[in-house]
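residues and backbone:
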Amino acid sequence: MVRMSRVWAGGHSSAVLCAAVSCQSQHMVATGAEAGELTLWNHDGSPLSTLHLSADDDVTSLAFSPSAPCVLYASHGRAVSVLDCRNLKTPAAELTDVAEEEINCLSVNETGRDLAAADDSGAVTLIDLQLEKVVRTLRKHDNICSSVTFRPHRPQSLVSAGLDMQVLLWNLPKPRPLWSCSLQDTQEEDARQMFNPPLAHCVGVASCGNVLACAAEDGCVHLLRVSDDGRLRERETLQAHTQGASQAHFISFLSHPYWLATGGNDGLVALWDLSQHPLVENGRKTKGHKRRTKARAKTSDKNQKRQEEEASSASSSSETHGNIGPRQCFQHGEKVNWVCPAVLEGKPSLLVTDQSSCPSVYSLDQL
């Protein structure tokens, strides 16, 4: 359970709230903290530069541009600062009053053109980064919208989650969600869940774009599988934490894209291998069935029989994978604010922030 971490000191004077890593080979690391502090770090944990974006507002979320990895977006209050990490002395641009209330989460789509901002009013604001202006506001959440993320390979599709216990899938430019999923519908009736409703804190998407993970206040990570046409096909839950789950992020640089890192108010950080989880397996079988259907039209009866036997064997095998527990856990000891997968000094790592002013780094070498 216990794993040693490296502590990065000297970059902040208050609690670190968020972290982000660029997608380029150097993997620039940025952290945001209370009182408007933003810091860039070297991979060895030494701070490179610090900037104060606001005296009154916390830096609540950070997002690097996938198309321009030196460009960093930082939210504070209702504004977003656009920064060039090669020259961090002053913001390159300020997008002021782009949200209705305080921004909680930012996400940039893979084209680097659109920025989504989730705020306390429950709205998701869409910003055209070339025009530097708001082009659309999505309203459906009845409470704080805590998290938003664009889906990989689908620059016009995004997922949002909020304290109304709803997860929504949006397909732009439509102003209404394709579907909404209430996390309450997955709950069992017990006393613990009565006092800890599944308020959604963070939603992540695997690199395939069709598997979602949502960390919620009930301590569960809610898994959802989406079909290629965007329909909600399946839902499962992982009993991940003894207190509220605050973070859920898929890790793209390990042996497969279904590694998931979660963090919670219980001070626990857990690593999950979902590659053989029934929800992921069912997605593979669905795609395999479509491929086999096309192939059967061109094969002989003998080949058809052989393919059906192989499919049956695979189905029976997948049924043996029942409840999947965490592959690795470590007790961080503090309430987790943010979990950020990163490759640091060539090694797979996990950057964790909490109520302290010092981020911690855990090695994932053993995975």
